[in-house]
């Protein structure tokens, strides 16, 4: 079963995403980028990461930069799931190496299709 890491400081949202994706994937949730990075460094390797941008300790921008600058985790596709809808934020995330960007509120089915497309594209 493919692994998905969901990072969002809103437990209700990350729980809903995990519940929806849990029928097709092994889903792990973390509340911020710092905890997620620690989880990755503890030898966990997801097939896709879904992250919010606005979080305590380490926001999504910093998390994306750290993941993409690392040699080991740089190839993991990242989908940003954020309420930030500005073109500037989307461009910043894509330039930093995010694979996709979705705005909250979102359609869970669309998220699933985007994940499946990324997995196929990356032959995961």
Automatic annotation (TrEMBL):
Keywords: Phosphoprotein. The keyword Cytoplasm does not apply. Signal peptide: none annotated. One of its GO terms (molecular function) is phosphorelay sensor kinase activity. The modification 4-aspartylphosphate is found at residue 52. PROSITE patterns: RESPONSE_REGULATORY. It comes from the Bacteria. The keyword DNA repair does not apply. Gene3D superfamilies: 3.40.50.2300. Transmembrane segments: none annotated. Residues 3-119 form the Response regulatory domain. This is Two-component system, chemotaxis family, response regulator CheY.
